[in-house]
Batch of 2 targets.
Target 1
Amino acid sequence: MKLSFVDALLLNEQSERLRNAAKLVLATGEVFSGYSAGSLAMRYSNQGGSQEGVVITGEIVFNTTMAGYQEVITDPSYTGQIVMFTYPHIGNYGINSKDYESSKPWLRGIVTRSLENRTSSWRAEDTLESWLIQYDIPAITGIDTRRLTVCIREQGAVGCAFGTAPESILLEAAQREPGTTGADLTGIVTTDTVYNIGDPGNNYRIVAYDFGIKRSMLNYLKQFARVSVVPATFSADDALSLNPDIVFLSNGPGDPAALDIQAGIVSDLIGRVPIFGICLGHQILARAIGAATYKLPFGHHGGNHPVKRMATGRVEVTSQNHNYAVSGSSLESCGAKVTHVNLNDGVVEGMRVDSARIESVQYHPESSPGPHDSFYLFESLKELSR
Amino acid sequence: MPKRTDIESILIVGSGPIVIGQACEFDYSGTQACKVLRQEGYKVILVNSNPATIMTDPDLSDKTYIEPLDLQTVQAIIEREHPDALLPTLGGQTALNLAMQLDGSGVLEANGVQLIGASVDAISTAEDRERFKEAMLEIGLVVPAADFAHNLEEAESIALSIGFPVMVRPSYVLGGAGTGTAADMDQFRRRAAEGLASSPVHTILVERSIAGWKEYELELMRDNNDNCVVVCSIENMDPMGVHTGDSITVAPAQTLSDWEYQQMRDDAFACIRRVGVETGGSNVQFAVNPEDGSRMIIEMNPRVSRSSALASKATGFPIAKIAAKLAVGYRLDEIPNDITSKTPACFEPVIDYVVTKIPRWAFEKLPGAPEQLGTRMQSVGEIMAIGRTFPESLQKAIRSLEKGHAGLNCDTNERIYDDISNDQLLSLLSEPTPDRVFHLELAIRRGIPADEIVRRSRVDSWFVKQIELIVLARKAMEHMRESGSGIDFIGKEGWLYLKKLGFSDLQVAYAFGITEQEATGARLACGAYPSYSAVDTCAGEFAASTPYLYSSYERSGDLPPSGKDRVIILGSGPNRIGQGVEFDYCCVHAVLSLRDAGYETIMVNCNPETVSTDYDTADRLYFEPLTYEDVENIIREEQGYDSDTSKLLGVIVSLGGQTPLKLASRISSDLILGTDPGSIETAEDRGLWSELLKKLDILQPLGGMATSSKEALDIADEIGYPVLVRPSYVLGGRAMEIVYDTDRLREAVDEMQSVLTREGAAEEERPVLVDKFLEDAVEIDVDAIRDATGDTYIGGIMEHVEEAGVHSGDSACAIPPPTLDEGIVSLLRSHTSRIADALEVVGLINIQYAVKDSDVYVIEANPRASRTVPFVSKATGVPLAKIAARVMLGSTLSELKEEGLFHPAVPSGHFSVKEAVLPFSRFPDVDSLLGPEMRSTGEVMGVSNSFGIAFVKSQLGANGKLPAPGAVFMSLADRDKQVSTGIASTLIELGFSIAATAGTAKYLEENGIFVGIRVGKVTGSDDAEDGIFGSPSAAVDARVGLSGCPDLEFDDDHRLPSAVDLISAGRIQLVINTPRGRGPRADGQYIRNAATAAQIPCITTIAAARALAAGLREWYNSSYSVTSLQELYEGH
């Protein structure tokens, strides 16, 4: 019997993946071919491999970090999104129990050039793929991620669908995908109840609003404080009743413009307690003082963004993950000072209102993944409450 | 902060000749620095002894000194030019060491010169292993258990306390020279002694060996505001134990989690801050235990290094250029990123591809050197390849090496591994050799479990498992073939799959047992062809504005050309012995000249060390292997952009050495610019060539062409011995040999044919040439340019110092010829023009002549750029390669003269001498005798108004020092003895005393020369150059002569100390050892090797000895002067 190359390759079970072709389609019509990965193949076969196939949809963003995929995948801020990694080999060092940024992955799916089951690390406890299957996260691999990056760069974070369904169905699904614009996604990821971490005997107390908080933020905070983690819509009075030295506003997914309730709560807190915000927390804080937010074309997602700290002129290489940003001109009119600026595109990366003792940054001083250049901000947080 | 205005002039120190461990990456970095500092308005003064560099082009600096890089010379330049600052961090270890000497001797202070880029304190903290270790412990980093020894005794006790295996590292040395691992005390004593000798401060570090740990390197930049960035992380596929310069390395790091990587980054920043490198680039090396991730810091370089060149090419971030800007006060955030042109340089590049670097070694040129890799660097060059994944990048890298591999095996070359048994293979895996990566593939293919392979090789399992993908694909092709499915069944998906793993058409052809052409045809029929993506520093996040491109089998085409007529220039690939930076120089000149003339220039090359692969050299850069398939793909891509208004005019193949020339015959002939490839064939084809010379009535040595050893013997019988044998199609004297008898001739021809087979030349028959060897002839090189109208310009006539028989690349040579009379010179000129006419050359031609008894013989002609083009251009001020490139595109010499491309020729009265630099100190077991096989890695130039001084400068440049007055050991072949008396008396006059073996001593004494030291034989055999010397009175003489070295012991037989004893004891400052012809020469080799080991000059030809003696006399009798090229060309 004559064999095609792919037939011949499939004689070896290690090439199994090639049996499961899948496609990725953007709302703008571009089509990419790849193979099912993560739980996609399983979902397909669970469904009996039906004609309709599996469709995964979400707003697609790309992340340029070359390592740190486990932290990215478990970062609640990616809720509602499909994350594409620009680095081609993802999964090289497997998955371990230390690099979780939350209890599980929240994103809708991941896209890679080459999803590696061939792992090597003394830290590895699982392979990326079997872990994705465990958490039912679908993935597509073998994608020309460079071309996809250029599409996203040129068209913005568009609706996207991938799966085993026919192209036309995928296209329709991608076009129907509403994206994160106008979406309050904090409810999905926030804690249901208040919980405390850190040394119970510590007099220094932080109330941390969980809009989708990353574990590494809490790990930093609990080193010097007793932290009460509260739900996204925890009222200002309830928060104040916990006698915090400072209120911390976490990162989180979705559009800050949709978070009127949260902005209202924060606005109630301003002036009564020092407040420090990171990422979505920064955006909510900005809204609380009356500034505006807007959606960036394709956001900042990576670990190499240069941010200038205006006070010293020093540049930090920062970890970033945001689709939305605070308008610089609106901040000024609200009496806030821009403290940090992104050198790539001038986006506001930090602000401060001295009189109100509020301060926030758009990027991630806790890194994870990413450089440690901005740890000083946790010191700055402490100072704010002195 | 803007740039500094308190300094106006800056002295940049280059790195000197290309040597192992310090190659043309410093031409690249120095060139960037000169360009950028001049743009910033500084007066740039450059000193470098290497003429074959772009940085020494007179238009890159205000003052260009091609002078030796020693304290005295640079002091003279400083006193003449009064620079405000010295920038020492872009010229490798050479520049750094020189800066330390200039500081230590007070020259900088006395002349008010400040060091910029790195402080003395920072340099010594980084370079002095003792201080470095203390500094690192102070900031809490872990270093391997170690201690410093200043003598052998100390060393032994440290080794005992640490336990074996231990590593010996000498302080202040380059490229790991003198470094080595020792498994027991015996081995350790040897290593330690060597290490102490090679360290300029006689200090070694004895440390715990962490061989087998994973090895990483981070490339950093820091500015004066303490902004720090990592430009690139590099992971070595070869674990600790192999010098990083000899390792296969990959960027970015593949097997570190972000958690581990960020800690390493923190450590690297802590290191650069503690060492105190305030501005510029540095690299920091780490070892990581694969079992538990524990990390140690190994070393840091407070300067731009080979790895920085690699990191720059791997990411698009121009480290050297930015380091130069930082040195004059700029901050990282004030410098734009040229690649995106919108974002600043203060960021960390991210990439969306994998870069693999593989070193290229030259063991075949260095018989006697074991093909074993270790902690001292031995490679002479390297290549880099970019692929979307590691397998693709690895296979592209392997085929870029030009070592006869079409990829990772699956090619005709792999048959040499067929006979390896599985047991042998297992033990080979644990031996780091240049072939290890091929052994890895073979082991996987034979089904040896990955765990076992990892355990043996200590190569991280991630790499091994990635190679497994290549093996699986290859097996699938074999299954297809077995099932009778031909190549047409691969299908487009199959082709793309194979191509994305980096398979070449040649490999696919091999798997299916068909020709490359058939495979390519099948692939194109499926529509599987590559597209080209930009290296953009940002993984596509921002649009790139600089077309620095690599191929992939995806569809992400970036950056079309601008719409001008385009020219492709094929580069020279990896540096190797015989094909080095000289050819890159020619290619870069072609780019510059064609750019100026309004063409869009396209460079293709895969050598990350070079100026040609800088993103701002050519208009478009393809970083691709120089194989037929890869080049043809680029031609197809570029032709795809042809329009009514602009098109691809053609390809220049004659400037990059043999690499592009080998491709010429397969590239469509109407695309070849310049001399027709047919003419190259004529010059290479023995029959056609002889016929042509006969027609021109020009002499050539008798000879013939043989395809078997029998034919060779017949020819030799007819023309008489000695004969010169060589393959007909070579560069750098590959396997060239002078043969004196039939036995050796038979062997030599057989060896040559097997080498040719290995190099893949066997597809077509490449016969061996057998020529009468002209003994004692003077060898001449001529470089010339001919235009299409038949006008010829003689660029330079070079007279070799060494007689014919020493490879021209290893021989010193001078412009103008110091001993030739006017008649010979005009004969050389007319021969050159007539040969160029007859070959219808359009562009460069190099012709080698031998002059014997006023007869001029042509040895060979090469209608292409030669190794000497840069030297001639520097010596005369006329940029030959620039002119040649224009001529190839149709300009005439007279038009170009009018355009002003011919600078006024250098006024007579100046001599320029080129000297070769040899790698023997790296290969202690290799005989340093010069011969027809080229072994030099680089060259230097000396300039003066006297030939003697120019020659001495060239020696100073090549060796770093002149022979200190003391004892000169002479052991000469009979034919050289007559000349030796003059040399000996000159040296005595200069304060040397003579040491000689019996025969030479006898001859010298009979001719009135006092021989102070009698020297015995090394071996017990009778085969020394001299007869046996044994008279008791002579032994007494010897003892008298040796009164200065009481520690030498005489054995009971009153045996005289041998030359090796004396050299090793440091009693000899200069060796002149000329061997008689061919034959047993054990003594001579021991002597030369001892000289190499003791790092004293060893001269092996009488002509060079004569030139040195005469030169030294002038040198010591005249005041020292230095001259810049600008003065030279202006005729001051």
Target 2
Amino acid sequence: MEKTPVRYHVLHETTYDYGSPVSLSQQQLHLSPRILAWQQIEEQHIAVTPSPTWRRDGQDAFGNPVTWIAFHAPHDSLRISSAMRVAVTPHLPENLESSLPWEKVRDRLAYDASDPRPADLDATRFLFESAHVRIKHELADYAADCFPPGRPVLLGAEALMAKIFKEFKFDPEATTVSTPVMEVLEKKRGVCQDFAHLMIACLRALGLSARYVSGYLLTRPPPGKPRLIGADASHAWVSVYAPDFDNDWVDFDPTNNLLPDTEHITVAFGRDFGDISPLRGIILGGGGAEPEVAVTVTPLDEEELLPALSGAIAAAERPER
Amino acid sequence: MARTLLAIYPHSARRYDEMLTADGAVRPHWRQFFIHLDSIAPEEMHRRLDFVDRRIQENGVTYNVYADPSGSDRPWALDPLPLIIPPEEWAEVSAAVAQRATLLNAILADLYGEQTLLAEGLLPPALVFGQHGYLWPCHGIKPAGGTWLHQYAVDLARSPDGRWWVIADRTQAPSGAGYALENRLIVSRVFPEMFRDLHVQHLADFFRDQQDGLNALAPVDGDEQPHIVLLTPGPYNETYFEHAYLARYLGFPLVEGQDLTVRGDTLFLKTLRGLKRVHVVLRRQDDGYCDPLELRGESALGIPGLLNVARAGRVVIANALGSGLLASGALMGFLPAICRKLLGEELAMPSVGTWWCGEKPALEYVRENFDDLVIKPAYPTQRMDPVFGYELKGEARAEMLHRIEARPHAYVAQEMVNLSQGPTWSRSHERRLLARPVGLRAYAVASPDGYSVMPGGLARVATGANARIISMQRGGASKDAWVLTDGPVSEFTMLKPSVGVRDLVRAGANLTSRVVENLFWLGRYSERFDDSARMLRVALSRVVEASGGKTPAVASAMEMATILGILPTPEEDNEVKEGSEHVLLEAIYDPNQPGSLAGNIRNLMWSATHVRERLSLDHWHSLNRLQREQQAALKIHPTLTEAIAFLDRVLGVSSSLTGFAMDNMTRDDGWRFLIIGRRLERLSFLANTIANFLKMPSTRGPGSLEWLLELTDSIITYRSRYSRLPELLPVLDLLVFDDSNPHGLIFQASVLARYLDRMARELDEHSASNLPEVLHRLQGFDLERFEQTQFSPERNCPVCDDLAALLRELDSAAVQLSDWLGMRYFTHVGDVSRQTMAL
């Protein structure tokens, strides 16, 4: 039977109000969602105010859409609105126990001087240390009880996800984007980026491939309350390499202890946050300004779009002059 | 044969000897040189050694061992005897080096493109994806001409059987070619006859090939001339001397990241006269630091957006970003098979036996042969000194093995090489040669006709007879390498034998904004340093004269120093509890106290470091001495008299710096900014000081006008004009209105206005400064109003208030002017770009 996709509208708005004028600025945007076997992009648009002096769209080395913009004239604020309509087909994996034993996956990823299978070689891009994912033996020790000998790799990953969910507390005050994984492990606190990095580090420490996925999550307003604009946030989770299983990669969300299905919208994946941070820039001037970020995820089958939201969407989708 | 030369030269069965055969005879290609050496009289040899030392001193050839702004540059160590290599042997070495450069370039092309080497199992992914040196954002960028590797160096050593082996590949931004050139210029003059008679190949062709190679690839539009710059990480880098030296020799501007800016997909150099497009960046900065937008974001050294210029094919970066990963020793074992695959030929020169521990059988081998191996990091970005297996016993060995087993892919083991030995000239004996282990760093550059290998290179000598590592950082020395030829010697030279009219260089018009900004700050800091020393001397000598008592002059001088920010503001109810003396000494010697003289010395050193090539060695030394003296004083608690003597020396150095700027520097834009910096700072200091003086009640007591004259260095002029005690009106006339007194305000402001006017005309631009207008009003100030005024604590002084207000306006005009200069001409060195991140 054909599965029915769930359709969403997503609005991701970032605003910088600089303390003093910024004279030069360059930004790299990972804000356009990528196409996946279970995810179609119906419409997508990025609006920038003020108008950038220069812009280029392209693809990064991991196949994610990327946009670069530059400003050569002084400006006091920067507003970037990314609006998209996305359809996500149900793809919840079944029979995790039918995945290969984890040692077998590990051995397939290890080098033995023969031609590697293309999928395995591709997965080795996500097998090693990266800037935000340092690998220490303590991480392998932490994950060891989730991966007893012979356990199917996806059951091991599921157990690891559950362990992190159970032992770690969600705490936005505890960490920053540059908090090392080892500190997260020690504090047992953090946010979705930290839990994703930690889980990836554990898997890689065991010799398994895991990638960092950025995107959005549908949140549910309290019963009887309307959806609030900007109440959501960008989200991050993990994808684990399981050769010969479904699409070879299976997603896990350690922040919520669940397997992503139609409520997760993928934007990009990479080795870690550094490869695909939504908005990364270099500015000259500007004083000390922190960005304001607002994300709104709206299912398109909801009775009616909030008037305020449609206004924001219209603004975001207005063509640049 | 001359046995005295060899009296303490050991014969070694374990090492190949560059000069002697196994039975002790001098090798044919050394014979002529050896006989010549033997014929040189000891006094003559002394003279030649002195020449070597002097040249190194004079040319300022240094190798910074510690990145320390206080000047721990070490003179370059050069042994005068060359390493001599015969033609037939060099032909083989040279071909092998060129082949290896071609191979490594092909590997980079593959790894940043198709990655067939990985798909076919010829390279383990761990050595590519596992390296931080593999720069993912560079994947897919195709550089001009398919050239990733423009400059390559390889460390070679000779095994006991006389064969050359590769010890290490340098593919990031190899250093040493400039030192090799400098060595050649010196050594060829130490032995000029031999250099000529032995038919030594010259080096200039190699550097011309490098220029040609870069020019040929430059992505010019229309009839643009290729503009090539040499990118350095700056004066704190260990080989900065070489960067400056090569830039001059090759004729490329020496720039730092902040000199360059990306606009759209084009790279520009910021000069005083605007943006100038750059086509080629010869980089001596590591690739990870080159673009904070996409690579290491925390680095302030880079050029944001550079990668996008490379993607658009609008700049050639030599070497291409991402080339550093091939310096990994772990790759060596895989090269023979890769060479067959990519080049269809055998690798000509073997690499020293290398085992990458990431392969199981290799790890086994390392465990079993630990004593015979050296353990090194697999990735060039890892910081770790080589570890010799036989030196590790017991627990230390177990720990090392454990570390390797935990992360086997991060380590390689190499067999130990018994380096060959060669002769060096003993500095501690008369006419004796010593035997020292030697190695050779060879160089290749991409030229339009393939890789061109430098005939020669940087020969390196270990300090001890049994050393296993040769490292310039560990105090090793270097040698010139003489490659002999049977054919004619190319006479091409990049150094003109004499300078013709067409070669005359006049003051640089294309100064980079950064150099100009640093000179401006050097000017400001040197004046500020002078001002604070003078203020402190005024206060300190008042305290000494009062011998502990509190005269009105002590009080007013201390108050002024506090208002000017030279002394810290005393906390309430804690008024000078520790006494004026203590406060003053801290303001002189403690660099961490805001506004202190020591802090100003530090700032001055900092700005001097950044324009060092424009200062004379003497000035550099006297600045260094001052800083050392101030640092030493922190420990020994100097007396007040010693402190005054120190301040006298400070002011001596200061006036010699001023004299240097006035007499010895050429009058280019850079000089003008230096002087503008000084004038601005002095103008601001004088305006501020005199305005405060007029407003402060404490200055109306006896003795204050005297110190004001002393502070402004005008006391002699005053005495020669008025043989009486200082009075307010004549003092103000001298310090404010007299346009012939260089320590006077109107003098400073008028000179400044003239400079600005001239600059505005030259650069065809108006300065938005109101300085001329304020100056005009000041000149019209009615001095007669002071005749009816009594300057005493009891009376108000409205005319004092009016003049003070005008002086404050002048001060703020100076501040605004400084900001405007910064906006218009500078790169904002202090205002570094920074990273922002949003989720």
